Design the sequence.
């Protein structure tokens, strides 16, 4: 009575592995687009149009720049494009598609008095530069021959507490050990975030 | 449900004996009469059926290293999305409106308003505690597999709270694991 059910063949996107129509909700629609234009043009007809327009723009740009000057101008627009897309990839999306408010990458250094003589230096924000806090605290402790530890702050953020007052030396140390951290993104706190850069 | 799911999450993997295999086959057949004709291909009697146990009382039914069904505790067996895409008519369908798609795709449960708004479709016959396929407005393929928390009639009348629990959705841990090896 029931004939054999035939399995439906589904076209899964080669990039995000979702069924092709869901690529716009996938992790990286921009990467899926070229794949989609080739393999599933009927699903996203406006993509085809977009791709054609882009190609036309690129060609006209190239022609223009070749007319005005040589190689130099050609390199600049294409590199700007790739830089733009890679920045987008890093943008983290919360469920709901909202973009997580990007905390500016900065290192905040604060001095807190512990006893009347003693104080601690709190370093916050190193993890935003991709630095492992446990390694960082070890290095700091070794360098300044004091205790350093990773402490959980009132928010989820973690910070490094270093015993003693080392705020001035620490700037140099950070920029030397981790060249990714530019001096201008280190801030001291002097009674309300005085943007005393580095 | 399957937000985080990788090979390390498997606590045990056993080949089941024939009697258990028959029982599993029978319950799947009762649950999804539409699959009867292809049952032989999907769960052949001769091929060993492997049952994979995972934390949170989760069991996977695996054939030839491909997970086909899963169940929580002793609940009904539910097909994986990949299987459902191949045989879309075996389960009842609910449809959510477009705005809900991105939430469902991050594992959110399906709230009643998503099903009762224009763009949402409810199948009146569906009861509580039943597995359903969730489709999206304007899309041809299933978006997720859910377990109803309220019957379709209640969803329509009460229109508040969680209507369907999101068990398995596109691009979750189980979807990413096409084969277990």
Sequence:
């Amino acid at each position: 009575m029931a004939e054999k059910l035939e399995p439906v063949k589904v076209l899964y996107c080669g990039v995000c592995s979702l069924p092709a129509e869901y690529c716009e909700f996938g992790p990286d629609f921009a990467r899926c687009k070229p794949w989609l234009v080739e393999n599933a043009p009927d699903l996203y007809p406006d993509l085809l149009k977009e791709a054609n327009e882009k190609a036309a723009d690129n060609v006209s740009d190239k022609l223009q720049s070749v007319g005005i000057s040589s190689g130099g101008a050609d390199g600049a627009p294409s590199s700007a494009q790739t830089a733009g897309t890679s920045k987008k990839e890093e943008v983290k999306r919360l469920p709901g598609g909202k973009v997580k408010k990007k905390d500016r990458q900065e290192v905040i250094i604060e001095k807190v008095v512990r006893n009347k003589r003693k104080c601690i230096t709190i370093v916050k924000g190193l993890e935003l530069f991709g630095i492992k806090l446990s390694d960082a605290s070890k290095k700091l402790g070794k360098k300044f021959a004091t205790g350093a530890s990773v402490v959980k702050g009132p928010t989820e953020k973690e910070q490094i507490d270093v015993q003693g007052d080392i705020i001035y030396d620490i700037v140099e140390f950070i920029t030397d050990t981790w060249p990714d951290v530019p001096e201008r993104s280190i801030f001291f706190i002097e009674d309300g975030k005085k943007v005393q850069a580095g | 449900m399957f937000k985080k799911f990788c090979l390390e999450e498997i606590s045990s993997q056993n080949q089941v004996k024939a009697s258990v295999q028959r029982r599993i086959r029978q319950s799947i057949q009762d649950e999804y009469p539409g699959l009867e004709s292809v049952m032989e291909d999907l769960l052949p009697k001769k091929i060993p059926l492997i049952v994979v146990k995972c934390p949170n009382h989760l069991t996977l039914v695996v054939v030839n290293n491909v997970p086909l069904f899963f169940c929580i505790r002793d609940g009904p067996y539910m097909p994986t999305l990949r299987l459902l895409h191949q045989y879309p008519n075996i389960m009842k369908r609910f449809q959510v409106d477009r705005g809900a798609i991105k939430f469902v795709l991050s594992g959110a449960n399906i709230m009643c308003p998503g099903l009762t708004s224009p763009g949402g479709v409810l199948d009146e016959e569906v009861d509580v505690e039943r597995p359903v396929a969730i489709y999206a407005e304007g899309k041809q393929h299933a978006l997720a597999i859910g377990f109803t928390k309220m019957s379709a009639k209640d969803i329509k009348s009460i229109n508040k709270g969680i209507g369907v629990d999101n068990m398995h959705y596109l691009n979750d841990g189980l979807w990413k694991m096409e084969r277990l090896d």
